[in-house]
Design goal:
Elements lengths: L1 H22 L6 H18 L6 E4 L14 E4 L3 H17 L10 H19 L3 H22 L3 H30 L14 H11 L13 H23 L12 H21 L7 H17 L3 H20 L2 E2 L1 H8 L1 H5 L19 H22 L5 E2 L5 H23 L11 H17 L22 H26 L3 H20 L1
Parallel strand pairs: 3-4
Antiparallel strand pairs: 1-2
Helix pairs in contact: 1-2, 1-4, 2-3, 2-4, 3-4, 3-8, 3-11, 3-15, 4-5, 4-8, 5-6, 5-8, 6-7, 7-8, 8-10, 8-11, 9-10, 9-14, 10-11, 10-14, 11-15, 14-16, 17-18
Length: 518
């Protein structure tokens, strides 16, 4: 029941915010209500540790011949770190909202709490039916949000393409369930059958936002930094948890080296664009690509704990950076301490990230280590960038509340490295973390001295549109051409000469059959 309690707190608080917005729009304690609900949910997730693993099963759906499994939610050592990361993100987003230009904004706060509740249900899902339902809800929320925030045909097309990629990922997971059922086993994420592993990997990869590379966001900066950050990170977390459930036997496939090579190139691309991007929020998709690639790489090395480690670092490290909008020297220095959680050094959050239960060709280390170093270098430079507002311009109470949100995410990042789940208190593959850290120090030193690494808007750098957009635009144009041909064909058949055309096709078809019979 603790699982249900946490989710109910989030949803009830969001509903209360919406009711107050309609009934008493000038209610002054609305922010305290939102923070109070998020805080209670955050504390309740810590209480899960007293009784883990926790299982919450909904009543069986009818007809049972169609719904073999009912929705099941499970909190264990792999899903709990994601749960605490998401609730920390929600609480930090509400605490740092006091420095936003759109404060107060009860509608955005209700959205943050609702998305967090959906994200919790996604990371706790124990079978495809449960996860697909939550994915659909998150996708619809994202689709509505983005369509309301963009104008013009091209941005709307990009939203639809992104939504289509997510729907395909959803379909791949359903196909994995069908394939498992056809093989005589029921797919659940604790004991997933071998044949479902690659399907699960493809489904997660599609939904991580790699296709298309860059997704459009809301145009208003305050909404982008608060609600927009939660939206993107919750959506990523709902896909990342699937990587931790991939069975070890699935990654022994002959396709694994090829997949690792593709993932390594994606990690390098994400890290390079992350370093080169001049604006932090515009660079957010590349952070998701780079860190998501490291998460997939851990899953391909049969390391579920490492996959969770990189996924939580994506949420907590990225969340602390993207929510930071006020410049203050000591707070910036605190933000830089997040590098430790991303370093993969012993006893850090990502210490388990490079462990491997399968043999890994040494060439892949030559790709993944620079990718991690680029992500760390970009984190440092984005942390040191001038923020939107100054700390002194904020009210006194805001100066006290705002830093708590940033510090809270960093503290949870450190805490997850020391205990609470199976990937904590580990030395990991320490030499990889050490090499990546030394390479990061080198890149950070030479970056101001090397124009190639300086995040300047060069004529060939397009942070708002990736080079792969040409591919997606070509595919979209091909879709339009096929649609036009289909409409033309339908118009011909429905015209006055449609009967003659039909007879002609029948004659041609009959002649082909006759030739085949001879």
């Amino acid at each position: 029941m603790l699982i249900l309690l946490t989710v109910v707190i989030l949803f009830v608080t969001a509903l209360a915010l919406l009711i107050l917005r309609w009934v008493r729009p000038h209610f002054r304690a609305v922010w305290l209500l939102a923070v109070g609900g998020a805080f209670l949910a955050w504390v309740s997730v810590f209480l899960w540790q007293l009784h883990m693993p926790l299982v919450f099963i909904l009543p069986a759906w009818q007809p049972e011949s169609l719904f073999v499994d009912s929705p099941v939610f499970l909190a264990d050592n792999l899903s709990w770190p994601y749960a605490i990361s998401l609730t920390t993100l929600a609480l930090a987003a509400l605490l740092t909202a006091v420095a936003r230009k759109n404060f107060p904004n009860s509608l955005a706060w209700a959205g943050i709490l609702t998305l967090t509740g959906l994200g919790l249900l996604a990371v706790l899902a124990d079978n495809p039916l449960t996860l697909v339902l939550i994915w659909a809800a998150i996708d619809l929320a994202e689709l509505v949000t983005l369509l309301r925030s963009v104008t013009g045909s091209e941005p709307r097309e990009r939203v639809v393409i992104a939504f289509s990629a997510r729907v395909v990922g959803l379909g791949v997971l359903l196909w994995a369930s069908i394939a498992s059922t056809a093989g005589g086993t029921t797919l659940n994420f604790i004991a997933a059958p071998t044949q479902a592993g690659l399907y699960m990997l493809v489904a997660a990869g599609l939904r991580l936002g790699v296709l298309p590379i860059h997704l459009p966001f809301t145009t208003e900066s305050a909404l982008r930094r608060g609600y927009g950050t939660v939206l993107r990170l919750v959506s990523a977390a709902s896909s990342l948890i699937l990587l931790a459930r991939i069975p070890t036997s699935s990654v022994t496939s002959p396709l694994t080296p090829a997949l690792l090579a593709l993932v390594a190139l994606a990690a390098l691309y994400g890290g390079w664009m992350w370093v080169r991007s001049p604006k932090t929020l515009n660079a957010r998709p590349y952070w998701l690509i780079g860190m998501g690639s490291l998460t997939i790489a851990a899953a391909l090395r049969a390391n579920p704990a490492g996959s969770v480690a990189w996924g939580c670092a994506l949420i907590l490290g990225g969340g602390a950076l993207f929510l930071s909008s006020v410049h203050q020297k000591w707070l910036t220095r605190l933000l830089l301490t997040g590098v430790w959680g991303l370093s993969a050094l012993p006893f850090s959050l990502t210490a388990a990230g490079w462990s491997s239960k399968t043999s890994t060709w040494w060439v892949f280390w030559l790709l993944f280590i620079p990718a991690q170093a680029l992500l760390l270098t970009g984190y440092i430079q984005h942390s040191l960038r001038p923020a939107e507002n100054t700390f002194e311009a904020q009210p006194k109470w805001a100066q006290l509340v705002y830093p708590v949100g940033i510090v809270l995410m960093l503290l949870v990042m450190f805490a997850l490295g020391l205990g609470g789940w199976q990937g904590a208190q580990t030395m990991g593959t320490w030499w990889v973390g050490l090499v990546a850290t030394l390479l990061t120090i080198t890149l950070a030193w030479i970056r101001p001295r090397l124009r190639l690494l300086t995040p300047v808007q060069a004529h060939w750098v397009r942070p708002a549109t990736a080079w792969l957009d040409w591919l997606y635009r070509g595919l979209w144009n091909l879709y339009r051409v096929l649609g036009w041909l289909s409409a033309l064909f339908t118009q011909i058949l429905e015209s006055d000469g449609g009967i003659l055309w039909t007879l002609l096709f029948l004659v041609l078809f009959a002649s082909l059959l006759a030739g085949g019979i001879r």
